[in-house]
From TrEMBL:
MF-aspect GO terms: ATP binding; ATP hydrolysis activity
PROSITE patterns for this protein: ABC_TRANSPORTER_1 (PS00211), ABC_TRANSPORTER_2 (PS50893)
Pfam families on file: ABC_tran
Family statement drawn from the similarity comment of this UniProt entry: Belongs to the ABC transporter superfamily.
Gene Ontology BP term (one): iron ion transport
Organism in which the protein naturally occurs: Roseovarius pacificus
Protein name as annotated: Iron complex transport system ATP-binding protein
Length: 252
């Protein structure tokens, strides 16, 4: 279970995350939503120990993430950031094999090879496995990074805007994949999303952030509400329900 206690992050005197207490549900897909600059990525980075909090702490199953040994944390929690700057002259296979590093330490076993294969299957990139990353489209590259995270085979998987540069077909595919990772593989998936309809359709829980604070958090049906979303984004929109599903019309 991930818990956040008295967590703040301050850059040059400006506090961009300020959360008293937050508990992320175990299992399922939790989406973090909110306007640009709300602090979503900073929160995700602090959970994944890519950023150090200014005050407070993040607990993973009761233990401060900062106290884990690198290799131990890498077997429990994986993070996919927005801007993945890795050497372009790396093949898809090499990238996904990186995900196994906490286990293989560079000497892959049969199990590592099977996990790499399974991850490539899941994202549909088997045919591209020996392509270099700079020979892929943006969407294919994004899926290769997602395969790397899946190969890492962690209980917790965090994704920062994984739908960037994906067409609608692949965006739906990735969200289904994250749902599969949660429902079939038992992972706790946390994902920063901008598209409210993807959040409404594919997440189980939503954390709504604004100006560094958690405005509300709860099951999708409780958060995808007109009053809350209008306040959050300071824009007109409508929320409708059809066939027990909620839809957000951002032009309304
Ligand atoms: N390294 C940094 N130095 C200074 N300010 C930063 C740094 N990283 C983030 N910020 C600021 O912190 C605030 C929150 O940024 P963050 O990226 O967490 O927001 P976000 O909700 O993920 O935004 P977006 O939806 O635009 O990606 C922003 O005002 C940003 O400018």
């Amino acid at each position: 279970m991930i818990r956040v206690e008295s967590l703040t992050k301050t850059y040059a005197g400006s506090t961009v995350v300020d959360i008293d207490a937050l508990h992320l549900p175990q299992g399922g897909v939790t989406a973090i939503i909110g306007p640009n600059g709300a602090g979503k990525s900073t929160l995700l980075s602090m959970i994944g120990r890519l950023e150090i909090p200014s005050t407070g702490r993040v607990l993973l199953d009761g233990q401060d993430v900062r106290t884990f040994r690198n290799n131990t944390l890498a077997r429990r929690l994986a993070v996919l950031k927005q801007d993945n700057t890795l050497a372009a002259r790396l093949t898809v296979h090499d990238l996904v094999a990186f995900g196994r590093y906490p286990y293989s330490r560079g000497r892959p076993t049969q199990e590592d090879r099977e996990q790499i294969d399974a991850a490539l299957d899941l994202v549909g990139l088997q045919d591209f496995r020996y392509r270099f990353l700079d020979e892929l489209s943006g969407g294919q590259r994004q899926r290769a990074f997602i395969a790397m995270v899946l190969a890492q085979d962690t209980e917790y998987a965090l994704f920062d805007e994984p739908l960037n540069s994906l067409d609608i077909n692949h965006a739906v595919g990735v969200m289904r994949l994250l749902g599969h990772a949660a429902d079939e593989m038992g992972k706790t998936v946390v994902v920063v999303l901008h598209d409210l309809n993807f959040a409404a359709r594919h997440a189980d829980h939503i954390i709504a952030m604004q100006a560094g604070k958690v405005v509300e958090a709860g099951p999708v049906a409780r958060i995808i509400r007109e009053d809350l979303l209008r306040r959050l984004y300071d824009t007109g929109l409508t929320v409708t329900t059809r066939n027990n599903r909620v839809f957000v019309d951002v032009f309304g």
